[in-house]
Amino acid sequence: MDEQHSPWPLIFLRPDGARFEVSIAAWQTMQGFIQQASDATEAGGVLLGRHLRDGSAIIFDAVTVPVDGDRRARTRFHRAQRRHQAAIDAAWAANAGTCTYLGEWHTHPEPIPTPSSVDWADWRRRLLHDRYTEPLFFIIVGTTATRAWEGRRLDVIVSLAVTTPIS
After folding, report:
1. Which helix (H) or strand (E) holds 29?
2. Which domains does the chain have, with CATH numbers?
């Protein structure tokens, strides 16, 4: 499912009924990279956040943004591993091990984003080879809507439905 761009945090409903919440700060950061101009390049980074102990939600509080070494084109984004990993490690240390890697985000130059074959292949590779606590999340920010997917090690990737934001 997708969500039209809005000023409130995004909340996606996961297959198990729990929530995947995007903080306002992280959402505003991603919105700053929406590809409105015809020559704008894709942007992206990693999702950083926390698993609530009661299992009711996974919340991502921050994202990394493009850095030197990332490769960006109109319809392509490849992040530099080391620089983003340094941000993951710093967030982990600064938050006593409660802020962790939750997945990946990037933009697409289309209104309602659809994963490309490159996206699917990258997501499957990350599910098999990255170090993480399940699940991983993948967000694509389009020019008018944002969509999210949840993946597990066994190569299972499902689209998440948007739910009404909590007031």
Report:
1. helix 24-31
2. 2-21+33-162 (3.40.140)
When the pLDDT of each residue in the chain is averaged and rounded to a whole number, the result is 90
What token pair was written down for 44? 């992206």
- Partner residues linked to 50 by β-bridges: 59
- Provide CB contacts within 8 A for 90, sequence distance 6+: none
The one-letter code for the residue type at 68 is D
What gap in Å lies between CA 27 and CA 34, rounded to an integer? Answer: 11
Amino acid at position 144, single letter = T
**Is 42 one of the annotated active-site residues of the chain?**
yes
Instruction: Name the pTM for this structure.
Output: 0.90
Annotated catalytic residue, options 3, 42, 104, 150:
42
Taking CA atoms, 70 is separated from 21, 46, 67, in Å, by 26, 12, 6
